[in-house]
Design goal:
- The chain has 210 residues and is α+β, with helices and mostly antiparallel strands.
- The protein has two domains: 33 residues; 145 residues, Protein of unknown function DUF192 (Jelly Rolls).
- Helices cover 22% and strands 27% of the residues.
- The chain contains four helices and nine strands.
- The protein starts with a helix and ends in a 13-residue tail after the last helix.
Amino acid sequence: MTETTPRRSCVTRFSALARWSRIACVVVALLGCGSVNGCGSVNGSEVQATTNPASSTEDSQALSPRAEAYVELSPAGRSPVRVRVEVVDTPETRAKGLMYRRHLDEDAGMLFLFERPQQLTFWMRNTYIPLDMIFISSDWKVVGIVEKATPLTDTPRSVFGLSQYVLEVNGGYSFRHGLSAGDDVRFVDATKADAAKAGVTKTDAKPDSQ
């Protein structure tokens, strides 16, 4: 009997410790995920993936935009500029974003399409390229710009106002081309299915600038 009591006490302490360990793991997991999206956006609807870069050869490759998809931006007092874009419009592709990419052409970018206007916030976790984040409204106007976001940081980045689209380009692109809030934006995708999925019709697109 004298030996049994200490053993029960040990078992009890071990069980309690295991219970608290499990609770701690859940808390850490929740804090680690937070409410973060894409390369992404931080508004609670999606969680950016943190996959191992070695798990996919595509992660380390340069961006390969579709030739038929581009965004045209019209800065005040300047000629329009075009950005060839890779379109991401699903929770999975938005969560991955530009993670692990090592190169982005000057005239290339990634366009995030969301289903509705919302307060979008992005981070730079697992993202190696300094980026400008151009937030765009549902009627295709620049809401605001986050310039030269620092790579490999979890700092939430957003602009004031609702956005439905976000264009990510090389850091400094907006300054070099004089982009600012209020500028007109036009998205052109020759693939009708993609345009329909993005909620964009011919009537939504602004006419080509002359």
